[in-house]
Design brief:
about 850 residues; mainly beta; 5 helices; about 5% helix
């Protein structure tokens, strides 16, 4: 990256020298400059001007083609107000001269003259501070304001409110011993929203605020409190009193003089309002309280080979701006959005930039929708390509409100780290929109972490690699990689006319999700093309695909074919569907063959070429924890909610469960197994058969109130043919008494169980990483990667020792071993449960 930036800088100056051969150049040096010099003197490097204030006062005299150059390695304080335009062939240029590091334009001032006010808190006054304070650094690091509870507390420092009104929340655990009136409340009303409101009153367990939240909040969601001196208890935490222009900070037993404490005192570092044809090259811009760049009704603005750091709100805020070029620029530490093309921005080019740490502090970004994002593009014909985006609080790259936008060959890594229900790449459209020509192609999107803390389900996140939300249509999603996301690799939510082609989706909770729900009842899943994709679930609990609709219309979603549905650790039932049949919501699990036959989709699609064994049982210890599992003479030791009986069916005496009802309901068989331990592994084995094909779930549950589920849920196909089954259970906690639960919703059903065994086992659990090779290449040319053996891709092609991955693409391979090749052979010759086959071998 560094070599690219240097090369680009040299090429820029070659172009600029052609543009400016007959123009004037004005020099600025903070060290040797003097603002009393004439404009003629300032055209010499030996007699430069000194300050940004002098530049602004002279701005009216700047002409098209002129250059303003700042001395390399020096720091200039203030806000540049660009009040003149260049021309297409003769832009006005802001750049650098001399050797060394880039010059810096800053809005920071160092806070000094700290006065102790007790309890480790010191206070500093600065007359330059404004109506708010959004950006502070401590020893060069972004320093959040104080908050209660601290982010290091449980649940990432979120408290929980049980009820609310339009202008208050009530937390029954909150006391009035600390009165929080006047502090700032940060509320999470929805997964994707963080709202900031001033607390107008604190009465008992209720906090009141003046303006209603962006959305009516869900109860049992989270909040915290900030911007109060009462929150200061960790090194560097601060509070700002705008009335007194004083900053209070916690230093504990340390002296403030041993720290560098900077505060932003300039709202906007560069302002371009109704001006055109301006170039910024090779300059650092830092320390804005609000926006580093504010571009308003501007055209042909170029920001090249610069850095934009420590932006109190946004790095670049552009409205109604045409032909913005942003290239080879480094962004770091924007509290809200790094690049915000927020209204009617057209023909923009955002290329080869590195954007890091955007919206990473909860409560420091703005309220409402579309915040804590790295790049936002609103308008037509905008391009974002070859960018690297790391560490984003919410969505990394969002485009809306226009046609012909292209998102291509970007690397996005780690997003949805502060807010949830986000995408690495996200788009949304209003009802009735008719945008066309949208492309998402060749991107690598990784690690949608998810931020469930502060919701009613703090263990369940919702982040997707590529997320097409309500009413989106006419988007081509091709040749992307989306991996390691909490929810989906690709999510279509009330979207239609979408092409999904040649993508690799890997190690997401579900690889592809397509949903039509009540949020947009008229945005049906229609005319979608899903072809030549790889949906690769790395673990046995992940899914390859899920489709959910409001009617019995899944077969009408469009065309799906020539895809690979791969879950090598258990390729049974890796696809789910949910639809409404005759007024009843019907949820189904499918293997690929059943998916094809049920919905007439994916006729030529395939599945895993090699199967990976889930585990190996080394030995058993103790006796069967359900000693009557052979049912030789009775069915004692279990409880059933359907009718049950002892019959002669499988191996002599057999347990029979009978559900004679014709409506859906949960029917259970409950088997007590006594005490279980989180330090042990357990194996459940049984023989099964049913009067018709159905699905039965099995899990472990606490025997007694509150009947907590203790394990994950196993989805088990019961068929009209006898099957032998084996499942591994691990536990997060101990239980003095536990039950095995068999549960089904299938009406008019008989099923049979025999040979039920539940043992404490010494088990070697398979690490999928020892079998699965996933790698990506985000460079502009093919790259070779080493392999430690022979591998197969999803199509069955083999690779030994190395593989070349093309530019901006990825590969997922399965290692050939004697164990999994034998396992695959056995699988192809038996209809029994896969785990039992492994046991038999």
């Amino acid at each position: 990256m560094k070599q690219t930036l240097i090369h680009f800088s040299l090429s820029v100056f070659i172009v600029f020298s052609f543009f400016t051969s007959n123009a004037k150049t004005y020099y600025f040096s903070n060290n040797s400059g003097n603002d009393t010099r004439t404009s003629t003197q300032a055209q010499s490097q030996s007699t430069p001007w000194k300050t940004v204030a002098k530049l602004n006062s002279f701005m009216a005299s700047i002409a098209a083609g002129d250059s303003i150059l700042f001395k390399s390695g020096e720091v200039f304080y203030g806000s540049i107000i660009v009040a003149k335009s260049g021309s297409t062939s003769l832009p006005i240029i802001f750049s650098s001269y001399g050797s060394g590091s880039r010059p810096t334009i800053t809005g920071f001032q160092t806070l000094t003259n700290w006065v102790s006010i007790g309890n480790g808190i010191y206070e500093s006054y600065n007359s330059a501070l404004g109506a708010s304070l959004n950006m502070v650094t401590l020893n060069g690091n972004l320093q959040p304001m104080g908050r209660y509870p601290n982010i290091t507390a449980a649940n990432k420092g979120y408290l929980t409110f049980e009820s609310h009104t339009a202008n208050s929340i009530t937390d029954q655990q909150l006391t009035s011993s600390t009165n929080w009136a006047g502090a700032e409340l940060v509320v999470r009303p929805k997964r994707w929203i963080l709202d900031r409101r001033t607390i107008t009153a604190h009465s008992g367990s209720t906090l009141s605020y003046g303006t209603a939240l962006t959305y009516n909040p869900y109860d049992n969601y989270g909040y915290f409190i900030q911007n109060s001196i009462k929150t200061l208890d960790q090194l560097g935490e601060w509070y700002y009193n705008s009335a007194t222009k004083k900053v209070d900070a916690f230093f504990g037993g340390s002296s403030p003089s041993t720290f560098s404490f900077l505060a932003s005192t300039v709202n906007t570092v560069v302002s371009v309002d109704h001006q055109n044809n301006v170039v910024f090259n090779n300059i650092n811009f830092t320390g804005s309280n609000m926006k580093t760049f504010d571009l308003f009704y501007a055209q042909n603005i170029q920001i090249l080979n610069c850095s934009v750091m420590y932006s109190g709100v946004d790095g670049i805020d552009a409205s109604a701006t045409d032909k913005l070029t942003l290239k080879a620029t480094y962004f770091n530490y924007s509290n809200n959005i790094a690049v915000d093309l927020n209204y009617n921005c057209t023909n923009s080019s955002i290329r080869y930039n590195y954007i890091a740490n955007t919206g990473m502090v909860a409560g420091m970004g703005l309220s409402g929708d579309g915040t804590y994002q790295a790049v936002t593009m609103v308008g037509n014909n905008n391009l974002a390509e070859y960018n690297t985006i790391y560490n984003t609080g919410a969505t990394a790259l969002r485009f809306t409100g226009g046609s012909s936008n292209v998102v291509k060959n970007n690397l996005i890594n780690y997003f949805a780290m502060v807010k949830d229900d986000c995408g690495g790449i996200y788009t949304w459209a209003s009802s009735g929109s008719s945008y066309t020509g949208q492309q998402i192609t060749g991107n690598i999107v990784l690690n949608g972490i998810g931020a469930p803390e502060g919701t009613d389900k703090p263990g369940t996140g919702s982040s997707s690699g590529i997320y097409l939300d309500d009413n989106v249509a006419n988007v081509n999603i091709s040749a992307n990689t989306s991996a390691n996301c909490f929810k989906a690799g690709i999510l279509l939510h009330n979207a239609f006319n979408i092409t999904i082609k040649n993508n690799i989706l890997f190690n997401n909770s579900t690889q592809l999700i397509m949903v039509h729900d009540i949020a947009m009842p008229n945005a049906l899943l229609r005319n979608n093309i899903v072809t030549n994709n790889t949906f690769f679930a790395k673990t046995e609990t992940q899914l390859t695909s899920t489709v959910s609709t409001l009617a019995n219309d899944i077969s009408l979603l469009g065309s799906m074919d020539n895809n690979y549905f791969c879950r090598p650790m258990d390729d049974n039932l890796s696809i789910t569907s949910s639809c409404v049949i005759s007024g009843v919501r019907t949820d189904r699990y499918h293997d690929l063959a059943n998916w094809k036959s049920t919905y007439n989709l994916d006729k030529n699609s395939g599945k895993t070429p090699l199967i990976i064994p889930l585990y190996d049982v080394n030995s058993f210890s103790g006796s069967n924890k359900y000693p009557n599992g052979t049912f030789n003479s009775n069915i004692s030791g279990l409880y059933t909610s359907p009718t049950s009986s002892w019959v002669n069916k499988l191996d002599g005496g057999t347990f029979q469960a009978t559900n004679s009802f014709s409506t859906l309901d949960n029917y259970q068989v409950v088997i007590n197994i006594g005490s279980i331990s989180s330090s042990k592994n357990y194996i459940l084995r049984f023989s099964a058969q049913a009067s018709r094909d159905t699905l039965v779930t099995a899990y472990l549950q606490l025997n007694g109130s509150p009947y907590t589920r203790l394990s994950d849920i196993k989805i088990i196909p019961f068929t009209t043919q006898r099957t032998e089954n084996e499942y591994l259970f691990t536990l997060p906690s101990n239980a003095s008494s536990a039950n095995i639960i068999f549960q089904t919703k299938c009406p008019k059903l008989n099923y049979w169980l025999d040979n039920v065994e539940f043992y404490d086992a010494n088990v070697s659990v398979t690490d999928p990483d020892s079998y699965v090779f996933f790698q990506y290449n985000n460079s502009s040319s093919g790259k070779s990667f080493q392999l430690n053996g022979t591998y197969e891709d999803v199509a069955g092609n083999t690779y030994t020792n190395s593989i070349i991955i093309p530019a901006y693409s990825s590969v997922v391979l399965i290692k050939q071993t004697p164990a999994n090749m034998l396992y695959t052979f056995e699988k192809s010759n038996h209809k029994d449960n896969l785990a039992f086959l492994r046991k038999a071998n």
